[in-house]
Design a protein that fits this description.
This is MoxR family ATPase. Helices cover 46% and strands 15% of the residues. The chain is an alpha/beta fold and 332 residues long.
Length: 332
């Protein structure tokens, strides 16, 4: 078990953070309509210090969400549109040869868009595998190797990538190693009628609501450190382990549905992601410790991109959601 912090100091810190997060969520809600679950899980990702993969059809506000988060959270945000002709240097940066006033020539490194605090990788699956892999080191290690040098990225550093589930011609599916770097995979659906009506009236008038800063990058980093101090009960730890280990075919303790339908299951990083995400969700709700309900609520966005159906299961029409539902039922 983790060392339990002083209860009084922890309560005070969580309450203070909860007030700031409430203001930040309200600021996002004035601009983003009808996506409460997506916004919550995006906040969970940022509080956990991770990266997010957003999946949704065009026009749902994915780009707007990232821009709004950058303003509300006080982060330097940049956007890269991924295309088949995008090169690694277009993301990481490149060295150019310059001649000084004294006639001497020297290479100068020009930073790419990855040198930011919040990077939106728009339609990441449209870039080639070579370009996709350029993000691997930066996502995991928060640094970039260029020209024989190791350059640290700004802190905090988060990647919010998007994928379009339609028009898959000419796309390159993300490899498992890169998918595992995303803390959550969140599906963005159409807003309900009431939210769409509100959005229609708010965005087509003479004045449109604009995001207002509610936190700073330093406060976000302090919040991330606080999340890791939140105590976790043995029941929650056991639920996480049963859920993740039960999804590994060929391993002792695997669920029957996993053995029958999965080609491969989640690794230890899934359990780590679920632990951090549960802590972050508890703090967002103003609670001092996560519960098994948090584990069940976040199981799908944590596991969905870390497991794959076997060929036979796909041929039989089995859906990944069905296997995850069976895993959740086995936990309670």
């Amino acid at each position: 078990m983790n060392e339990v912090p002083s209860a009084d100091s922890l309560i005070g810190e969580v309450e203070s953070l909860g007030e700031r997060l409430a203001r930040a969520r309200a600021a996002v809600g004035r601009v983003i309509f009808g996506q409460e679950t997506v916004v919550e899980r995006t906040f969970i990702t940022l509080l956990s210090g991770g990266h997010l993969l957003l999946v949704g059809v065009p026009g749902l506000g994915k780009t707007k969400l990232v821009e709004t988060l950058g303003t509300v959270m006080g982060l330097d945000a940049r956007r890269v549109q991924f295309t088949p002709d995008l090169m690694p240097a277009d993301i990481l940066g490149s060295e150019v040869l310059e001649e000084g006033q004294d006639g001497r020539r020297a290479f100068r490194f020009i930073e790419g868009p990855v040198f930011t605090q919040l990077l939106m990788a728009d339609e990441i699956n449209r870039a080639s595998p070579r370009t996709q892999s350029a993000l691997l080191q930066s996502m995991q290690e928060r640094k970039v190797a260029v020209g024989g040098r190791i350059l640290p990225l700004p802190e905090p550093f988060h990647v919010l990538a998007t994928q379009n589930p339609i028009e898959q011609e000419g796309t390159y599916p993300l490899p498992e190693a890169q998918l595992d770097r995303f803390l959550l995979e969140v599906e963005m659906d159409y807003p309900d009628e009431a939210a769409e009506r509100e959005m229609l009236l708010a965005t087509t008038g003479a004045a449109e609501a604009r995001a207002e800063p509610a936190m700073t990058a330093r406060e976000l980093m302090a919040a991330q450190a606080l999340i890791r101090r939140i105590p976790v009960g043995e029941g929650v730890v056991d639920a996480i382990l049963r859920l993740v280990r039960g999804a590994r075919p060929g391993v002792e303790g695997a669920l029957a549905e996993a053995q029958a339908h999965l080609a491969w299951g989640p690794g230890p990083r899934a359990a780590q992601a679920l632990m951090l995400a549960c802590r972050a969700r508890a703090v967002l709700d103003g609670r001092l410790a996560p519960s098994v309900e948090d584990v069940l609520e976040l199981a799908e966005p944590v596991l969905r991109h870390r497991m794959a159906l076997s060929f036979a299961a796909r041929a039989d029409g089995v859906r990944l959601a069905e296997v995850i539902a069976a895993l959740k039922a086995s936990v309670g």
